[in-house]
Specification:
heterotrimer, A alpha+beta, B alpha+beta, C alpha/beta, C: two-stranded antiparallel sheet, 12 strands, about 10% strand, globular
């Protein structure tokens, strides 16, 4: 269900702070020790701040038998006849190779494969060949979705819908090269810690942590920067308020708890995503997760851990690289067009009634959250500091 | 009614004064210019003697500049700290603080910065009642008219004829060499801001008609006393006017004036400054905690802890005009976002402060359970019943505790991983049982141990190393439980009120109160009859006749003079 | 036993006045950056910045140990010969208060201005090197010099904000002409004119002293001692101003160098290293001849376009393309460029240290602040950006230490360096980056 490298148990403090940072980023930041706000909710309310919120990656041995999905340069070389490929790979011809592959990322009228992937016709990239992947069964009996292969979860649950992982799981940024996970996972979780992309969770009406069939679940963005200790772990007991920049970034879901696991009914979740990677710099975007479901298990230390399954359009899934524009393609070598083609081809959800085509891919995010105080606000009302100056 | 100063200067100081003050300052009076354009100024009266020089603290300097020149004038620089004498206040240390070369260099830089802003094109109109005949040349008349009123506020008394001439001369000479009248003004003003008459509050005494042969503080010194005690700032125009008219040596008029000042919202500044001194808040600058043991502690928490204590004290003692003894028992305080994790409470304010009230069984009671007190009197990696007990004795009861002897082996008490002694109480038992240690530890530990449910940063903990923490203790022979029990016993112990009364007296006068038993006894009685309201205590001491009596020997008596240890000093 | 006030220990503080001297610093700088050299003749103190783009491999650069005698990891090994004169600063954060983290921009801007960046190529406020230049750079021919060794006149983090950015000199020959062509000021031949403002300040201080007698007449003996101390301090300040009014000592190290050969300006690493060497030597000589006391050197640009000769893969590309192997903990191909940056830094420090001045070197009389714009370029992280200082500013700061900031704001660095260089400032930075807490571990 989760990535191979699990959360380090609380209390472990790696000797090097930066190694700790890297270790923490893989499975989400580790938690502070046991003095969390107690396991029994007060007034049925429980608050959390997310310490992990990134694509769930499974490191199966046979998942990418042909190696990782190619960079732009690699895909360009693959497209050439063998003799030409060998010629361009000679050291002396490196400037020519660079010129040629870089030329493939731009199109007429200032377009490029990352900002406008839909305009470029590229072959699909290498996809996941294995049968096991984390995720949820999102479409039940399959009505409303397009035919596709499902996965079996690492725990043996069948019918897992995770086409996004099938499409992207062999890319460098998802898979990485060291058997744990790639930069996408590290990067997304790092952004939770710096506060650029902090997400909070509020549960209401929790009567019992093992069994409760009516729980209100609010998941939303916050502008409050998490409080970290000197080892970059999240300090529990910090207070967060939902961001008031956009009422859409406060999503109210309905859930139930069965056997200590909280599941929510499908609903759309929108969250802020403020980072840009180059190109249209400083531009704001958002997470647009359709028919999303949370599946969270209550942990003994007061935190929650699990998955978020949803559908995302290829565009929204690739949004941070799309904002990177040309830089993402010609500096980071990301073949956005190939990714886009693969995602579009493997789309399995949100059928367009007019065309009959599916427009979104199923996905699963590895999520985890630490206990926190979450202050709710009615949409449009701001919290005024009471008392004091 | 007001001095013939420039319009905005008058206005600034008027705004600093509450409306009630206008009632007494508007009394019909023969008005004359207090510090007029003409060179007529108050000469030093016969027998005038300087009896104290009290260096301005950083807060007082900043408040004075803001009140005289407006809050948009920046003060940029570092203030040489005032040394606190053992068991006394910084206010007392100020009365013997000197200014080192490095300190003066900073004051000089600050002075040039302030003067540069005051007379720059944007601000100068507000401070000048005149314009120079030629901007490139000296203009003595305009320089005097500008600088003399300012000097009255800076020196907290009218400038003497010699001083006015000197300052106008400085401005003229500087204008000549620089080719700018305004540069001349700037340099003259920076000299005034560096002069000892500004940097030190100089208290002068005059013969006391009620006690022949003795001295009493004169009117202007009383104005400074009132203003710094109650508002921690320089005397306002109205207060200086009252001094000029001799109102402050008349007990009845002094009473009216002081009452108005106590009712003003500016009393909060005075109360904050007093408690920061009495509770040794300068120690917060050095507060450091082991980040592994206390991951919740960070720079934002360190900044918030003293502010929390001050807000609590101001709320209880000023806003609610409360009984001083309630600061040991109140469950009300304030929190901001940074403190949320320390107290484990939700904080709705994203950037500000909000009030909270703890539940009765949280055992948070008053000042002893404020994170700032608990963190300050702990070590970097563990709590300390002994430091806390000592702090209660010394800060809140005014009972000094001797230092430990030099040859103590601290190994046992420092080892928090010892399997046999798992709690601080167990670790300290070694000291409690050793006769050479117990005489002092009996004084401190039994009152520090009840606070052990709060760790080294003031966060709650029920256990230490797996053992439930015992909250019992004793104070003055009575058994008690936890912070609330201790707070209750302290609140009914007369030493607490005696202590704060003596501290306020020391703070007001800048002198140790060791020899003031009779006065203190009288004060304590009055404090009690006022229901121990702290603002009433401030008023009482502000108007206390004994506080203005000077027991200085007349000038000329020989006494020891400490040699300056600075190389290059002439003596 | 009740322990009351009466049993307080007495005798700790006898009634006599205590003249306590609390110098904040051992050596003082006057407002114009002059210090007293051992001979009593003034030696100017210099300040400068040295910038490199794309950070480091954190596990291979940051020392594990804090304090003196820090361990040198592989990517820091280049500084070994000067380690005792270099401080490492780590673990300082840049909170942006919701402003976007502009990759390769927000970090450098945050460090230099104490504010969040709000757009490309614009500084949101004055960079602190400019504030220092206003303090110590007004007496020399150039208030400051900006140089970039990999091209780009906008490769600069120095300016006043509001659209003002000091452009950088790119070409060694152009730099030479600017420094040593017509207009070069030979410090050893020019005549000296005292500054009229300083003269005015000096005479004002004399007037302050003239007021002494009036005050003393009314003082008791115990206060006389303190007044004495005060006027001693005034005399000290007067002496400092006197120093400024005297002709400075000859600059022994000054000698006009030869004009360099015209060179290409581009981002090929070997070429950049060479251009950097040449321009460093020119800058050092400009300082030895006191034509400037403030400088800003950018080795490469923020989104480093450095390449190896014959290759078209840029440093930037590698940081994003080369996957991070967590078993290694770093990016091996990126290391090549990090090493080159550090070697260039070591050269720069060595060049300053090679000029003898009085009883020390030009480096000893300087404070150079080196920094990058990100910690780990791949993730664009701006907390824990690597920073260093070299030189002791004439003994004003300690050297040879690794100081960790404990997650406090990076504007403490800018605040501290301004204070060290004599800028009268006690708080600096905006919003969450505002601070009034200098880094006391740095101060001597």
């Amino acid at each position: 269900m989760t990535a191979a490298l699990d959360n380090a148990p609380p209390g472990i403090r790696p000797a090097s702070r930066t190694l700790g940072l890297v270790a923490a980023l893989i499975g989400g930041s580790t938690l502070l020790g046991a003095s969390a706000p107690g396991p029994t909710p007060a007034k049925g309310e429980m608050g959390f701040v997310f310490t992990a919120f990134a694509p769930a990656v499974y490191q199966g041995k046979d998942d990418c038998p042909e190696g990782l999905a190619g960079t732009v340069k690699e895909n360009y070389l693959t497209s050439l006849p063998l003799a030409e490929r060998d010629r361009l790979l000679l050291k002396a011809n490196e400037p020519e190779l660079t010129r040629k592959w870089k030329a493939t990322v731009v199109g007429p009228n200032n377009t490029n494969i990352c900002a406008n992937p839909e305009l470029f016709d590229r072959p699909m990239q290498k996809t996941i060949q294995g049968k096991v992947a984390p995720g949820l069964d999102l479409d039940g009996d399959g009505a409303g979705s397009c035919p596709h292969e499902t996965f079996t979860s690492p725990d043996g649950v069948t019918g897992v819908d995770n086409q996004a992982y099938r499409a992207m799981g062999c890319t460098r940024t998802y898979r990485g090269v060291d058997g744990s996970a790639g930069d996408a996972v590290r990067g997304f979780n790092a952004l939770l810690a710096t506060g650029e992309h902090s997400v909070i969770l509020l549960l209401r009406g929790v009567d019992d942590l093992t069994s409760d069939d009516d729980v209100q679940v609010i998941i939303g963005s916050t502008d409050d920067r998490p409080i970290l200790d000197s080892q970059r772990h999240f300090v529990t007991g910090a207070s967060f308020t939902f961001s008031d920049r956009n009422p859409a970034w406060r999503n109210v879901l309905h859930g139930r708890i069965v056997n200590g696991v909280l599941t929510t009914d499908p609903a759309d979740i929108r969250l802020k995503r403020p980072w840009g990677q180059g190109g249209v710099r400083g531009a704001q975007s958002e997470w647009d997760l359709r028919r999303a479901r949370l599946q969270l298990r209550f942990q003994p230390d007061g935190s929650v851990k699990g998955l978020l399954g949803a559908y995302q359009t290829p565009r929204n899934l690739m949004l941070s690289t799309i904002l990177g524009g040309l830089g993402a393609a010609d500096t980071a070598g990301i073949d956005c067009a190939a990714q886009y083609a693969t995602l579009t081809r493997l789309a399995d959800g949100l059928r367009d009634p007019k065309t009959g085509q599916c427009t979104a891919v199923s996905l699963a995010l590895d999520v985890g959250a630490a206990p926190a105080f979450v202050i709710d606000r009615a949409p449009g009302r701001s919290i005024v500091a009471a008392g004091g100056r | 009614m007001f001095a013939a100063a420039s319009p905005v200067l008058r206005l600034r100081l008027a705004l600093a004064v509450m409306t009630p003050l206008l009632t007494w300052s508007c009394m019909p009076v023969q008005s004359g210019p207090v510090a007029g354009v003409a060179a007529s100024a108050a000469p030093a009266p016969v027998g005038q003697q300087i009896v104290a020089m009290r260096r301005l603290t950083e807060a007082q300097y900043r408040n004075a500049v803001a009140d005289i020149f407006g809050p948009d004038i920046q003060v940029a620089g570092r203030f040489e700290p005032i040394v606190r004498p053992a068991h006394q206040l910084i206010a007392t240390g100020a009365a013997s603080a000197s200014i080192s070369p490095a300190g003066l260099e900073q004051f000089d830089a600050m002075a040039r910065g302030v003067a540069g802003q005051v007379f720059d094109a944007k601000h100068r109109a507000a401070f000048m009642p005149c314009t120079p005949k030629d901007e490139a040349l000296p203009d003595e008349g305009c320089a005097r008219a500008t600088l003399t009123p300012i000097g009255r506020y800076l020196f907290r008394r009218p400038m003497t004829a010699e001083e006015q001439a000197a300052v106008a001369g400085m401005a003229g000479a500087a204008a000549r060499t620089s080719g700018s009248f305004y540069t001349g003004l700037q340099l003259a003003l920076s000299a005034m801001l560096t002069a000892p008459d500004f940097l030190y509050v100089i208290e002068t005494a005059e013969p006391d008609p009620d006690r022949p042969g003795q001295l009493r503080l004169d009117n202007y010194s009383r104005a400074s006393r009132l203003s710094f005690l109650l508002w921690n700032t320089t005397p306002s125009a109205a207060l200086l006017a009252a001094a000029e008219r001799g109102r402050l040596v008349d007990p009845d008029q002094m009473q009216v004036i002081a009452e108005d000042m106590v009712k003003s919202p500016r009393l909060e500044d005075g109360v904050r400054a007093f408690f920061s001194d009495m509770l040794m808040f300068e120690k917060f600058d050095d507060l450091a905690k082991d980040p592994v043991v206390y991951p919740r502690f960070n720079a934002e928490v360190a900044k918030a802890l003293p502010e929390q204590m001050l807000r609590m004290l101001v709320d209880e003692l000023v806003t609610r005009n409360g009984d001083y003894r309630e600061i040991f028992t109140t469950r009300r305080t304030f929190v901001n976002r940074a403190l949320g994790p320390v107290y484990n409470v939700p904080v709705a304010s994203r950037t500000g402060w909000e009030p909270i009230e703890f539940a009765p069984d949280d055992d948070r009671a008053g000042i002893l359970s404020q994170g700032g007190f608990l963190a300050l009197y702990s070590h970097s990696g563990r709590s300390s019943p002994t430091l806390r007990g000592r702090a209660i004795r010394e800060r809140l009861l005014c009972q000094p505790v001797p230092d430990p002897p030099g040859n103590v082996n601290f190994a046992v008490v420092q080892d928090t991983t010892n399997k046999e002694f798992r709690t601080a109480r167990a670790r300290l038992s070694a000291h409690a049982n050793d006769p050479s240690c117990s005489s002092c530890h009996r004084i401190t530990d039994p009152i520090g141990l009840p606070l052990e449910r709060f760790d080294g940063i003031g966060a709650y903990r029920a256990q230490e190393n797996g053992v439930d923490i015992d909250r019992s203790g004793t104070f003055e022979g009575k058994a008690l439980m936890g912070a609330s029990g201790l707070g209750m016993l302290l609140s009914v112990n007369p030493a607490t009120t005696e202590c704060v009364a003596s501290r306020v007296l020391e703070y007001a006068t800048g002198r140790s109160t060791e020899d003031e038993d009779k006065v203190l006894a009288k004060l304590e009685q009055g404090f009690s009859s006022d229901g121990y309201r702290f603002s009433a205590l401030l008023l009482r001491i502000a108007t206390l006749p004994e506080a203005y009596q000077v027991r200085a020997a007349p000038l000329g008596a020989p006494s020891k003079v400490a040699l300056s240890s600075i190389p290059g000093a002439t003596r | 036993m009740t322990f009351s006030r009466r049993t307080a220990l007495r005798g700790l503080f006898h009634g006599a006045a205590v003249a306590v001297s609390l110098p904040l610093l051992d050596l003082f700088l006057d407002g114009n950056g002059q210090a007293m050299a051992a001979t009593g003749a003034p030696v100017p103190i210099r300040f400068g910045t040295w910038f490199w783009g794309l950070g480091v491999n954190p596990t291979r650069w940051f020392p594990d140990k804090t304090g003196p005698d820090y361990d040198l990891k592989v990517e820091l090994a280049a500084i070994k010969a000067y380690q005792h004169k270099i401080n490492i600063l780590s673990d300082f954060n840049i909170p942006l208060d919701g402003a976007p983290n502009l990759p390769h921009t927000s970090g450098g801007v945050g460090i230099r201005t104490g504010r969040a960046a709000n757009g490309e190529g614009n500084l949101p406020g004055a960079s602190f090197d400019v504030l220092i230049g206003d303090q110590i750079g007004t007496k020399t021919r150039f208030r400051s010099l900006e140089i970039a060794s990999s091209g780009g006149t906008r490769n600069s983090l120095s300016g006043r904000g509001a659209g003002n950015l000091n452009p950088a000199e790119n070409s060694p020959t152009a730099l030479y002409t600017r420094l040593f062509g017509p207009g070069f000021r030979d410090p050893n031949s020019s005549s000296f004119t005292p500054d009229p403002t300083v003269m005015a300040r000096r005479s004002v201080l004399s007037s302050v002293t003239d007021q002494r007698k009036a005050l003393e007449a009314k003082l008791g003996a115990s206060d006389k001692a303190r007044l004495d101390q005060y006027f001693t301090s005034v005399r000290q300040l007067e002496s400092q101003l006197d120093v400024e009014l005297t002709k400075p000592a000859p600059m022994e190290g000054c000698a006009v160098p030869r004009k360099p050969v015209e060179r290409e300006v581009n981002s090929e690493i070997e070429n950049v290293v060479e251009n950097h060497k040449i321009m460093t030597d020119l800058l050092v000589m400009a300082m030895a001849c006191d034509n400037t006391r403030v400088f800003n050197m950018n080795f490469n640009n923020g989104a480093s376009s450095l390449t190896r000769i014959g290759s078209t893969i840029t440093h930037h590309q590698l940081t994003h393309e080369e996957p991070l192997d967590n078993r290694l903990g770093y990016q091996p191909d990126v290391t090549f460029f990090v090493d080159k940056c550090m070697e260039a830094w070591a050269y720069f420090v060595g060049a300053l240290d090679g000029v003898r001045e009085g009883d020390g070197t030009l480096l000893d009389h300087s404070l150079v602040f080196a920094h990058s714009e990100t910690e780990f370029a791949k993730l664009h992280t701006i907390d824990n950006i690597p920073m260093m200082t070299a030189g002791s500013a004439g003994g004003r700061i300690k050297t040879g230490m690794h100081i960790a900031g404990g997650g406090t704001v990076v504007s403490r660095v800018g605040l501290t360096l301004q204070q060290v260089m004599g800028v009268p400032v006690d708080r600096w930075g905006a919003q969450s980056l505002e601070t009034n807490k200098p880094i006391s571990e740095l101060l001597a």
